[in-house]
Amino acid sequence: MMDLAAKALRMDRSALYRVLPFALFMAFIAIEEGLRLGMQRQWLVLPDHALHLLYPVKVSSVALLLYLLRSEYLELKWGEMLNLRMASAAVCAGFITFLLWINVQVTLPLVGSPPGFDPTVFPNGELRLFVTATRVAGAVLVVPVMEELFWRSFLMRYMIRPDFQSVPIGAFSWASFLTTTALFGLEHHFFIAGFLAGAIFSIVLYQTRSLALCILSHAVANLALAIYVIKTGNWYFW
Predict the structure, then answer these.
(1) Of 1, 51, 16, nearest to 30 (Cα)?
(2) What is the DSSP string of 55-96?
(3) Distance CA 29, CA 34 (A)
(4) 60 partner at 20 to 30 Å CA-CA among 45, 129, 145, 173?
(5) The whole model's pTM is what?
């Protein structure tokens, strides 16, 4: 009985370690949306750029949490990126995801256009450079790790078996694939592009059996999008 209780406690902690960074990120988004609503209804008086300053706090908080929990993520084997054939395929998949993202701009009718993250609201100088660099670093180095740990390490395996750590990385079931793909899409403003991205990242996982390569693919897509946004000024993609 004690062995079963200890195993259940380990499972709960393992799930928490993969859910908590994602939950923290989403909590910051909820705070941002609440502040935005308060500004729109004139309950709060804040400068337009104030919400942009939340991003460095958000991404650094999540990065710190991921760093503190790094020893718990045994499924993350960064050496798998040294497999040039599979890494090249993951990079190509990431670039294809980027191309789909900028060409499939469909939002939910009730959601409307995303507000975007426009660093030009800051005067040209060190502060603008800082928030831009933070936005890129967060999108490339933090978000892919956080999201892939939640969606394709935890939830995808949990839907196959609640004792998710007994499920190999990249194990397939239609229920887990379709559910995580749908939810991943609905997490994003451009939800059709989100569906496609979620499907592609899952396919990378199925083909490589590597969460690290899945993160690489996600990071490449986000890096390509960041470069595109900065060069074109299409801030609504951010």
Answers:
(1) 51
(2) HHHHHHHHHHHHHHTGGG-TT--GGGGG-HHHHHHHHHHHHH
(3) 9
(4) 45
(5) 0.91
